[in-house]
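Sample entry follows:

_____
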Amino acid sequence: MKGYPQSWNLDVIYEGGSGSSAFAQELKGIEVDIAQLDAALSPEAGKDSFELERCTELLQSVLLRLRQSESFVSCLLAQNVKDSAASALNDRVKTLAARFLGVLTRFDNTLREIGEEAWTKLLGQEKLSGVAFNLAERRELAKRKMAPELEALAGDLAVDGYHGWSDYYNVIVARAKFTDIGKNGEKKILSAGQMQNRLSDGDRSVRQAAFAEWEREWSEQAELCAETLNRISGFRLKLYEKRGWESVLQETLQMNRMSEATLHAMWSAIGESKHVLVRYLERKAKLLGVEKLDWHDVEAPIGSATRTIPYDDAAAFIVEQFRTFSPELADFSEMAFKDAWIEAEDRAGKRPGGFCTAFPKSGQTRIFMTYSGTASNISTLAHELGHAYHQHVMNDLPALSQEYAMNVAETASTFAELIVSDCAMKAAVDPDEKLGLLEDKIQRSVAFFMNIHARFLFENRFYDRRREGLVSIEELNALMEAAQREAYCDSLGEVHPHFWASKLHFYLTDVPFYNFPYTFGYLFSAGIYARALKEGADFKERYVSLLRDTGRMSVEQLAKKHLGVNVEEIGFWRDAAALTAVDVEQFLEMTNE
C-alpha cells in the first residue's frame, strides 16, 4: 500500500493557503455578521427589540466561522513560521475576534439585565434549551466583569497589546537557529521543532550536545522572551485588578469550569504520590550510569524504545490499538491518516510542539507535529487523535455547546494515549520492548506530576513577583530552577533554567495558566479508563456521552453524572494517582539486578 501522507491538506478547507480568496470571503462574511449582531444589540435598537433566539443563532454562526478562521491561520503559521502573509491574516483574524468579543460583552450584559422570571421563561424555549447552560454561564460571568464598554475597550486594546505580544513570540521562535553537529562532523541548522526531538535521543552524547545548544540559543533569545512575558503578564494583572479579581487563577478556573477546591485536591493527591516517581528517577539514573538524571535524561528512552518507528507503522499501530476499545475511534483515526489531516513531516521552518485544532464549520480537524520516529512521537499522535475524536463526536451540537474547556479536552487526548500504551504493553512479548513501553508510560506520569507542576509553581510565583514590577532574566531563571527542583523533589542534576523562554505555553493569551489542565486530564482520564476496563465494550457509548457533555457542564457536574464521584475531594485523585505506583513497581522489578 502507498504510505500515508505526512503533510496535511488545508486546501479542502480554504484553497490557496495564505493567499486564499475563499478565506478572504469568509473573513468578509464574518465581518458583516458581527456588524449585524452589533446593530441588533446597540442602545439605539432598544431593549424591547432584543430577540434572544435570533441573536443567539447569529452569534453561534459567527462563532463557528471565527473558530475555523483562527484554526486556519494557526495552521499556516505552524507549518511555516516565516509566512508573512499568514502573519498579516493572523492580525486580521485577531482584530475580528476582538470586535466579536466587544459585541459578546454587550450580549452578555443584556443577558445580565433580564429579570429572573423572564430569564427562566426564555430558557424554556425549545431553540434555546440546548444552550441553556452556556447562556446562564455567560450571564453569571458578566456580573463579575467591568462595564461592557470597558470590557470592549480592553478587548480592542488587547489586539496590538496583549495578543500582539503573544504573536511576537512566533517571531522569536522563527529567529531561533540551532546548530546540530552530526556524527560525521557535518553542521546542520535546525528549527526549534527539529532540535526539540534531539533532546530525547537514545544516545546520551547527542542529548547532552543538543541540550547545551538548546540552552545556548534560548539564552540568546532570553532578552526578547523576558520582555514579551513581562508585557503579557502585566496586561493580564492590570485587567484583573480593574475587574476586582484578587486571584490570578480566577480566570483560568472559570475557563476550565472547575472550582479551586478541585484544583487543590488534585495537587494534594499528587504531592502524596511523588515519592514513588522519585524511586523511578533514581533507578533510571542508575541504569544510565549517572548519579542524578539531568533534564535531558528524564525523557531518554530505555530498552527497544530507542528504535525508530516509521510513520506508517506508527499509524497502523495506533489504529489497531484504538480498535480494541472502539471501532468508531479506529475508523475515524484511519480516515484522519488517509485524508491528510495530519502534518507530521520532519522539515525545517516548522513551529515546535504539537497540537490539534478544530474546523467546526467544515466538521474536520487538523493535527500538527514533527514526527521523527520515537516512542514519544507515537504517544503524541495518539494524544492529538484523541483531541480530534472529541471534536468529531461534538460536531452536531450547537456552537456554544462545543466550547469545551482545556482540562476536559486533555481528558480525551490522554485517554487515547492510555489505550495505546496499555494495549502495546499487553501485546509485547520481548522483555526489552515491554520495558521500553512501560518506561514511556511512566514518563507521562513524570511529565504530568512533576514537569507540569514545575510550570504551575513557576507561573504562580512569577505573577506574585510581577506585581512588584518587571522580572529580570536572572530572576526568571532562578524562579524556574527553584520550581523544577521542588517539583522533581530535588531528584535532578542539571535542570533547564531557560524553560520559561523555550515553552510556548507561557506565551499563550487565549488560555492563561496553560499547565494544570494537562494534569487534570491525565488523572481524570485514568479514572475514566479504569471504568472502561471494568465495564468493557458497553462503556464506549457512555464515553461518547461524557465527551458530548464537556461543553455544557462543570467538571464537578460531569464527574458526578458520568462517574458518580466528587472531584472536590482528594479520594478520587488519590486513587487515580495510585495507578502510577503499579507501573513503577513493575519497572523496578524488571530492572532489578
